[in-house]
Amino acid sequence: MPNLSIKDVPEPWAQALRQRAERNHRSLQGELMCLVEQAVSTAQSELNSTLSFKASNASPGQGLEWDRLGRPITRRGTKTIEQIYAEHLIRFPQPITEGPMSVDIIRQDRDSR
Question: Is 23's pLDDT higher than 80?
């Protein structure tokens, strides 16, 4: 399992995290793991709500395929069409209406031969 390290944490933040861990009856490591788990869970739920598709073997409410440890299945160096679609929806929520249409570009290229 990978280890993560955060360097140069301001002392007030470190003290606040220690106090939070104590209030929740956890070690500092346990408190940090809880915070990371919440952040990852939130990010996954935001991604799932953005995607409007369902993978064939995904359980209800999930838009991606997950492995047995609950991690999203990714392919090295590639993205699924659904991932690309979700990223474009975030970057471009409104359809692009300006600029040349692809059919006109193809027609011009074809006619130039």
Answer: yes
Task: Check residue 99 and report its DSSP letter.
Answer: S
In-domain check, residue 84:
yes
Residue 103, domain member (yes or no):
no
Q: What helix, strand, coil percent values describe the chain, rounded to 5?
A: 50, 5, 45
Q: Kindly state the DSSP code that residue 98 receives in the 8-state scheme.
A: S
Assign residue 9 a region: left if phi > 0, alpha if psi is -120 to 50, beta otherwise? beta
Could you report the per-residue pLDDT of 31-47, keeping only the tens digit for each? 999 888 888 877 777 66
Residues near 20 by Cβ (< 8 Å), separated by ≥ 6? 31
What is the C-alpha separation between 41 and 37, in angstroms, rounded? 6
- Boundaries of domain holding 71: 11-94
Considering the domain boundaries, does residue 79 fall inside one? yes
Residue 35's closest CA among 50, 15, 20?
20
Residue pLDDT, tens place only, 46-66: 666 665 444 444 444 444 566
Domain count, the chain: 1
Please indicate, yes or no, if residue 74 is contained in any of the structural domains. Answer: yes
